[in-house]
Amino acid sequence: MIDEATLDFSPGALTLLNAILAVVMFSIAIDLKPRDFKVLARAPKPLVVGLASQFLLLPALTFLLVLAVQPRASVALGLILVAACPGGNISNFITHRAGGNAALSVSMTAFATVGAILLTPLNIAFWGGLYPPSAEILRATAIDPVSIAITVGLMLILPLVLGITLNTKRPKLADRLRCPLQWLSMGIFVAFVILALAANWDQFLTYAGGIAGLVILHNALGLGGGYALATLARLSPFDRRAVTIETGIQNSGLGLVLIFGFFGGIGGMAVVAAFWGIWHAISGLALASLMSRTEAAR
């Protein structure tokens, strides 16, 4: 059964994934300067709506999905964990392609990354504990929220601070590094996920078919929920695109780090996060293509 299955992921591979995600975060951070946060402080509504969509709405929608579908415990906890992660590293690129507010997207990623230190372990513990089967896994693994917070902080916050500092002190160097570093880090991450899947291909094929539809529905809920909340909040189409994409693009790489670092690579959780990492890029780029054709984007 999928709850008893584990995927092969060595400590060295986990360390490499940590390093890759740190580089990805650094490549995002060199787009930011302290003045970007001052602009948002003067008009914080889009940011507040975006963070509420990310850390309140998506986990709540995920829990309702879990209650409706009643999946296996590890699959349910995988969905909850992915929903508890901050926005994914490709959300900024996709927002730009969609004709959305890329500055808001980058700022949301930065703020969500900082907030993830507290909110990611809190959401995993809270929503996972409300679904009895996944609560059993949480009790069995004795997850320490402080350890998760430290992992998130070292992997995401440190490169965020370094990237902002470089962009502030050496803007010309940051300009030269920005584009090649973003493409390089994304390429390395995709290659890593492919190699990790190849090492566990038989198990992935065994379980992915039953999980694919659930992940696609989950992703659609994230995108739809973000769009609905931004519309209810009367954000501009420019900001609405950013909130929609930030809610539907999750940092599944961080999810994999937490799954292998704290949950022993439980099969259902790992397959959910891995398939999320593939599907959200496909759905995000498809949505960006549609959005970019509208009058508001032009």
UniProtKB/TrEMBL annotation:
Pfam families from the UniProt entry: SBF
Keywords for this protein: Membrane, Transmembrane, Transmembrane helix
Entry's transmembrane regions: 12-32, 47-69, 75-95, 102-126, 146-168, 180-201, 207-233, 254-279
Broad class of the protein's primary localization: membrane
Entry GO terms, CC: membrane
Annotated InterPro entries: BilAc:Na_symport/Acr3, Bilac:Na_transpt, Na+/solute_symporter_sf
Xref: Gene3D superfamilies: 1.20.1530.20
Protein's membrane topology: Multi-pass membrane protein
Coiled-coil ranges from the UniProt annotation: none
Compartments reported by the entry: Membrane
PANTHER family given in the database record: P3 PROTEIN-RELATED (PTHR10361:SF28), SODIUM-BILE ACID COTRANSPORTER (PTHR10361)
Protein name: Bile acid:sodium symporter family protein
Natural source organism: Rhodalgimonas zhirmunskyi
